[in-house]
Specification:
By secondary structure, the protein is an alpha+beta fold. The protein has 2 domains: 6-48, SH3 type barrels (Roll), CATH 2.30.30; 52-138, Arc Repressor Mutant, subunit A (Orthogonal Bundle). The chain is 31% helix and 23% strand. The chain contains 4 helices and 8 strands. It has helices at 62-72, 86-96, 107-122, 132-139, and strands at 6-9, 16-21, 25-30, 36-40, 45-47, 51-55, 58-61, 148-149. It has a 5-stranded antiparallel β-sheet, with no helix packed on it. It has a 3-stranded mixed β-sheet with strand order 7-6-8. Helix 2 crosses helix 3. The longest helix has 16 residues, at 107-122.
């Protein structure tokens, strides 16, 4: 699974595929409808590869969480019923990542992760393979400041 070209943009719902990068902006395509548009660095653009989830034992890359969901769901989407209720989402996330920090990971963060997973499955962009960067990241010290954390 390669998440470095999958982006999230502050203020816009869904996920976006990085098509090209210029000096001043990014050209992205919405994974929902395929529409292309420019995004600027001050728009709050973040790669899913750089997002970490707070746990009680350190931070976990989002890719690791997606792999756990992929395994649990046998490569299928998450049932929409899990996204309908806050308590169901928390219980589901607890199954996927039992050590997630319940004080710093909010229900809104959990909903984003579960929704993003379904978007990736719809677009055939999620699998159970470990990327090289993820393997290296799991060996690094957990306190590196270059990552976005949920």
């Amino acid at each position: 699974m390669d998440l470095n070209k999958i982006l999230t943009i502050t203020g816009k719902s869904g996920l976006f595929l990085l098509l090209s990068k210029t000096k001043n902006n990014f050209i992205v395509s919405s994974l929902a409808d395929g529409k292309r548009f420019p995004a600027f660095s001050d728009d709050g653009v973040a790669s899913l590869e750089n997002i970490l989830i707070f746990t009680e034992e350190g931070d976990v890359p989002l890719e690791t969480v997606f792999r756990a969901i992929f395994t649990k769901e046998n490569g299928n989407k998450i049932d929409e019923n899990h996204l309908a209720d806050n308590n169901r989402m928390k219980a589901y996330f607890l199954e996927i990542l039992p050590t997630y920090d319940k004080e710093r990971v909010y229900v809104s963060n959990i909903k984003k992760v579960l929704t993003w997973y379904n978007i990736l499955v719809d677009n055939g962009l999620v699998d159970n393979e470990v990327s090289e960067k993820s393997e290296n990241q799991e060996k690094q010290e957990p306190d590196e400041p270059t990552e976005t954390q949920l």
